[in-house]
User: Fold this.
Amino acid sequence: MNKSVITVAILVAIAAGGYVFMQKQGGEAEAPVTQAAEPAVQESAADAAATAVEEAKEAVDAAKDAAGAAVEEAKEAVADTAAAVEEAADAAKEAMTEAANGAVEEAKEMVQGAADATADTAGAAAEATDGAIDGLLTADTFDADKIVAYIEGSDLGEVEKQALVATVKKAAESPELVDAAIASVKSALNM
Assistant:
């Protein structure tokens, strides 16, 4: 189609060029030939122009059809892409939910394990501390700071803790009170 338009345009240009050339050469002998050729050239140019217009209309129609088809294909591609994105988002959401649930279960198990270990450690520490406090409750090994720390960490009531701490601190200042303080601590701790 484009070759036809170009061919017609070249023919029109040649005819127009020939016409102009003949006009410039002008002469009385050539005038009748030029005048006779003029209507033929005009008719040929008009036919070529009409053909070119018709072909241009066909080209525009074909371009419109192609553009419409491209738009439809693009719409379908967008719809397919949107569906794929939605499916991927659903899959990601499901995977994240499963991973989060797994992490929560694992964290629960870890917390329970840590709580069990802490309880075991606390029990062992209490046993070790009970043994250690026994070693401190003699006149020769009396250590007021360690005994006070043990009393403050015990499960005695606050009033009883304060009274025992005061007694131990007084004994640290007055060595003659150490035996009485040791007896008070052992009594309070049921030792």
Notes: Residues 115 and 121 are 10 Å apart (CA to CA). The chain has a mean pLDDT of 75.
